[in-house]
Design brief:
Number of strands: 20
Strand content: 5-15%
Radius of gyration: 29 Å
Bound molecules: cytidine-5'-diphosphate, magnesium ion
Number of helices: 23
Length: 575
């Protein structure tokens, strides 16, 4: 079915023509005609299949431009989504000159929004909490609303907006049409439908799988510490320009962002702790391609439609199966192809299988590019670029007076007259390639991360564990063990120090109890391990504490300063 066959205002069709879309998507084919016929609808369809137009076209067709009453309200879970929907509506309304849609969301000054509201928009796209604020202040009047849309309804419920939604809907004139979109159906959704909708029709478009077939899904089995290196290699090798990386915690989002920046990528973070203005700016910069990598928490997983996101990384596996679908659904939109890569660390293989089953899809095991391959590509690109610059009319025709560098280069090159130019080029290339901060073996990267771990934070509690280098313990053995057996996440474990027969690590105070309960419970190679609070003097070790100190030295140092409490005398431990 084509848009031109729809019985809607010609201005709407004209704007769609401008976007060069002709065919309706499956969900649009089924929703739009029913919506134009005033039916209440519940829609469920995979990500990126055009649900926004499915409700926006009927809304625009219904709204009377000449009236200044609010005639349609769309409620969405996040500010970003509200802004995006508003933009989509305004694009579709390009030729409906008097029509205005405005986004209303928390985090933005309410006064600014009141100014926007004075312009009398006919369509309001809002997050639930802020909409209630405005209703209470009487700065928004919904009595003339004819159409209400709940977008990503299940997510709004997940976020605890049930009461708000009930309140908003119950304060509206019941004579309106309602459309509800949700990725899943729960009892709560049914309740909303039963209370506020009139004989809603359920429209479900399913392709069997919950994920899109044009997204190639792979998982890579690796160590926590290698994730950054692997992601960097994949991005560099494929020269990806728009990349999204999802992490589970805000702390991880910040950390991954800063590591990518160190490696020369244009990356920015997006998470719920950031001010709204910052969030808007980051989104805008990503949409326009000023930054290439958006590192985000799940605030960005839902509904966001950014053109041409080429690859999505699950840097951390989502803890909720459903989020897998939403996260990877940021790519492969509007029938384009996309890639989704999930990092799986030890102990997580079962999780990825569960996700695969839930999403009714297949996630293949993938491998990551070798360093050789990356260096090869890097060298080829560098040479191509050098040739481009050398060939450019700029460099050939510019006189030496105009380009001072050229004369310096010439002069210096003359000094190397007995040196073969080929050899010189090779020398230069290896300097450039090796100087690149990304050019590190996974082993080296591991070292770096181990060093970071060795740095102390101020609010952590230092713990002691009775295994060490002699037992073949690595930093990640300890972190993996803690992550698997407690509610700690990787980033919360700091300052891991491996000594010969024992090790130290630091965790936030609130986890100490949980960690202590593992003592004598947990086994390593059949041996019960002891875990206690470390008693060494933290101030004196300070940041000078070596990453690795030998058992003997540690024994000497610890007992010298603190005989009485030294746990090293504890006879349960064998050193
Ligand atoms: O809400 P949902 O995840 O289903 O997708 P969306 O945010 O509406 O994104 C759909 C994308 O496909 C947008 O970029 C649209 O411009 C584009 N598109 C469409 O919606 N309908 C078509 N018939 C063709 C393209
Ligand atoms: Mg959507």
């Amino acid at each position: 079915m084509q848009f031109s066959e729809l019985n809607v205002k010609p201005q709407i069709l004209k704007s769609i023509e401008d976007m060069e879309y002709t065919e309706l998507t499956d969900i649009q084919k089924r929703i739009i005609p029913l919506a134009l016929d005033y039916n209440d609808l519940i829609g469920q369809a995979p990500t990126g299949t055009g649900k926004t137009f499915a409700f926006a076209i009927p809304i625009l067709n219904m709204v009377n431009e000449n009236s200044f009453d609010v005639q349609a309200t769309i409620i969405a879970p996040t500010r970003e989504l509200a802004v995006q929907i508003t933009n989509e509506i305004n694009k579709l309304a390009k030729y409906l000159n008097k029509l205005k849609a405005i986004a209303i969301y928390g985090g933005e000054l309410i006064d600014k929004q009141i100014t926007g509201l004075r312009k009398r928009p006919q369509i309001i796209v809002a997050t639930p909490g802020r909409l209630i604020d405005h209703l209470n202040r009487k700065t928004i009047n919904l009595s003339s609303v004819k159409m209400v849309v709940l977008d990503e309804a299940d997510e709004m419920l997940n976020m605890g907006f049930l009461d708000d939604i009930n309140e908003i809907l119950s304060r509206m004139n019941p004579n309106h049409q309602t459309m509800l979109f949700s990725a899943t159906f729960s009892q709560e959704i049914e309740n909303i439908a039963n209370t506020f909708m009139h004989e809603p029709q359920k429209i479900k478009v399913n392709q069997g799988s919950l994920t899109l077939k044009q997204i190639s899904q792979k998982y890579i089995y690796c160590r926590e510490a290698d994730k950054i290196e692997i992601a960097s290699r994949i991005i560099e090798l494929n020269d990806y320009k728009l990349v999204m990386i999802f992490c589970n915690t805000k702390k991880n989002v910040d950390e991954v962002t800063s590591q990518l920046l160190t490696r020369g990528f244009l990356a920015e973070a997006l998470h719920g702790d950031m001010k709204q203005m910052q969030r808007d700016r980051v989104m805008a910069r990503f949409r326009e391609g000023t930054i290439n990598v958006l590192v985000a928490s799940d605030v960005a997983a839902r509904g966001l439609d950014i053109d041409d996101v080429e690859i999505v990384f699950n840097f951390d596996l989502p803890t909720d199966d459903e989020y897998y679908i939403h996260r990877i659904g940021r790519t492969g939109r509007a029938a384009k192809s996309g890639v989704a890569i999930s990092f799986v660390t030890r102990g997580e293989q079962r999780r990825i299988k569960e996700i695969e089953k839930y999403a009714k899809t297949s996630i293949e095991k993938g491998s990551f590019p070798s360093l050789d391959k990356v260096i090869k590509i890097r060298t080829i690109r560098l040479l191509e670029r050098a040739k481009e610059v050398a060939d450019s009319s700029n460099l050939k025709e510019v006189s030496y007076d105009e380009n001072r560098f050229l004369s310096i280069i010439d002069k210096q090159l003359n000094k190397f007259e007995d040196l073969d130019k080929d050899v010189l080029i090779k020398g230069l290339l290896s300097i450039i390639i090796n100087a690149d901060s990304r050019n590190s073996e996974i082993e080296e990267i591991k070292e770096e991360i181990d060093n970071r771990r060795a740095r102390r934070s101020n609010n952590g509690v230092r713990m002691f564990i009775s295994v060490g280098r002699k037992d073949d313990i690595k930093v990640y053995t300890i972190t993996d063990m803690l992550v698997k057996n407690t509610s700690l996440s990787n980033v919360e474990i700091n300052a891991v120090t491996i000594c010969d027969s024992f090790s130290f690590f630091e965790v936030p105070r609130e986890f100490v109890h949980e960690v202590l309960s593992l003592s004598n419970e947990i086994r390593y190679k059949g041996r019960r391990l002891t875990i206690e609070e470390a008693k060494e003097d933290r101030r004196r070790y300070g940041k000078d504490m070596p990453t690795v100190i030998s058992g003997k030295k540690a024994l000497a140092r610890t007992s010298k300063r603190d005989n009485k409490t030294s746990r090293l005398n504890n006879k349960n431990m064998k050193y």
